[in-house]
Amino acid sequence: MGRCACFEGNGPGGRTQIEYDHKHAGERVRFYDYQDAGTLVADFWAEVDKILQRRSSGS
């Protein structure tokens, strides 16, 4: 999970910065609705547990 800064342009030299939190799911990047640091850490470890369970079950 991390923060991504993307730029969009509207015409020559026009750039708008858009920041959003995201997480990686394989090759895909998904938006993450950041609430606070404690929730971020809890969500991170919940994702780690899911991945480890999938790997141990052979899925």
Strand order of the largest sheet: 1-2-3
Beta strand %: 35-45%
Mean pLDDT: 75
**Main β-sheet description:** 3 strands, antiparallel
The span between the termini is 23 Å
Global geometry:
flat
Radius of gyration: 16 Å
Classification by helices and strands: alpha+beta
H/I helix tally: 1
- Low-pLDDT stretches: none
Helix content: 25-40%
SS elements, strand count: 3
Count of individual domains? 1
Summarize the structure.
It is built from one helix and three strands.
Annotation keywords:
59 residues; alpha+beta; three-stranded antiparallel beta sheet; 1 helix; 3 strands; 36% strand; flat
Could you describe the 3D structure shown?
The chain has one domain (2-57). The model has no long low-confidence stretch (mean pLDDT 75). The chain has 1 helix and 3 strands. By secondary structure, it is of the alpha+beta class. A 3-stranded antiparallel beta sheet has the order 1-2-3, with no helix packed on it. Strand 1 and strand 2 form a beta hairpin. It has one helix spanning 37-57; strands spanning 2-8, 16-25, 28-31. The longest helix is centred in the C-terminal third of the chain and has 21 residues, at 37-57. The radius of gyration is 16 Å and the shape is flat. 36% of the residues lie in helices and 36% in strands.
